[in-house]
Amino acid sequence: MFKIFKKEIELLGKKISIETGKIARQADGAIIAKCGETVVMATVVGAKKVNPEVDYFPLSVNYQEKYYSAGKIPGGYFKREARPTENETLTSRLIDRPIRPLFPDEFRNEVQLLPTVISYDKENEADILSIIASSAALAISGMPFMGPVGASRVGYINDKYVLNPSKKELENSKLDLVVAGTKNAVLMVESEAKGLTEEEMLNAVKFGHENFIPVITMIEELAKECKKPDWDLEKKRFI
Fold first, then answer.
1. Other Cβ atoms closer than 10 A to 96
2. For the segment 167-215, what is each residue's pLDDT rounded down to a tens digit?
3. Which CATH number does the domain 5-228 belong to among 3.40.50.620, 3.65.10.10, 3.40.920.10, 3.30.230.70?
4. Residue 5: per-residue pLDDT
5. What does the alpha-carbon distance between residue 223 and residue 138 come to, in Å, rounded to a whole number?
6. Angle of helix 126-139 relative to helix 198-226, nearest 10 degrees?
7. What are the domain boundaries of the chain?
8. How far from each other are the two terminal CA atoms of the chain, in whole angstroms?
């Protein structure tokens, strides 16, 4: 009934998989990404027509963490989940920053990207997985996205770099660094460090970049199999 496309890789003992074709099929792109028992669904929808009054790229990224993903149900006075938390807002920006520069300057179509955490195992963080899922959703959507991008978190524990450390491992880490970019360039770095040298920080960025390249290759392989037709942009409307 469903034609499902799935790719999987293993990075230093951790399996990461991306899948499409079963859920949210009316979206321009929809991806289910999984690492351990943490699962993120990213969907992207774009307007086919441009609002002539818009002179910027109206990209909206709304990262969502549902209470049910960690087995919780809201109680007390507030029975429903309310406005975005501070962490959701910061993670939305984390996803936006490496993705936004990879659209053409003349592209002015409204795009909405919604990464949603549907399961959280309290070991594998959802922010890195959300960047990967969002990148894959855009890569198969047919939009003029000059990606894909990959991302990784780097820790520094006992004088060794650790790829995508768990929340518990980060407690003993001198570094919490998130790096994202393409195969050829780093587009975003965000970090918190304790007394590391410039060389150690630079090597951490290199370590993170080298280890998310296989993720980009996986996304490219998926896109070859199921990417939707490229959008036909009427460039004359931007003149």
1. 18
2. 888 989 999 999 999 999 999 999 999 989 999 999 999 999 999 999 9
3. 3.30.230.70
4. 92
5. 10
6. 40
7. 5-228
8. 45
Residues 19, 6 contacting (CB under 8 angstroms):
yes
* pTM, rounded to two decimals: 0.90
What are 37's two structure tokens? 């028992």
Q: What is the pLDDT of residue 209?
A: 96
The tokens describing 87, both together, are 């962490």
Q: Which amino acid is at 14?
A: K
- Residue 115, φ and ψ in degrees, nearest 5: -85, 125
What are the C-alpha distances in Å from 99 to residues 22, 78, 127, 230?
Answer: 25, 34, 14, 18
